[in-house]
């Protein structure tokens, strides 16, 4: 019986559409839950003086986690406070003038100089009259004039000294002392930061996953003491076959389900740019099916994933 050309064409079209129909179906994959832990460590070394949390406990942001012995650091801070107070006192002393008693002594010296000046003026007048009437020599008149100029200079000197006594130190001395005060404040801030670093607090709401040290043990600098898992650091991990890679974009929703837990939804937050498994052959149509790409998905900020790291999950990737 002769073949039907129209039927053969329809069959060929259906066979061509089979791959597209397969890609149009939702893809179900096996995945697991992974956690990004926050490992809190002191910046300095020391003996662990106290641990404020227990494994499995939930802590809020700002809650104390642990503390190293801070005897030496507190002494350094106390010294920094004393140095700052001394520098500030010296700066205040430079900005103000002399004490009232010192100003009074200068005023009294000026009064004496004014009295001497008045006497010199009167003496010069008498000597001038006597010299014009030839009752005194010119030498005596010159001496009287010199005494008057001397007393006037003395009064001017004491007036300038009194004005200077009302002022503070020279501007360059004040500037140098202000710089020293700034340095001492930085040293105090550094000492405060050092104390805070030896008694860290929780950076966010989290679950205490692990406590690595016990009270009395020596903790090296930078060595984690407590490991935290914030809810937002829980993510789904699954591996997407290469033929479906182009159908998933960042921000796409994927469904998930697990044993004895309610089904939920997460958003794709990461797609690997390199395949996790590369066959030792040149890429061909047959070998591309073996390539998988790591994909991560997270819950919303207001609704993080309520899953445990290591927990297996079934992931459903909707078709586009």
From TrEMBL:
The keyword Cell inner membrane does not apply. Its main location: other. Keywords: Coiled coil. It is found in: Cell envelope. Coiled coil: none annotated. GO terms for cellular component: cell envelope. PANTHER family: BLL5650 PROTEIN, EFFLUX SYSTEM COMPONENT YKNX-RELATED. This is Membrane-fusion protein.
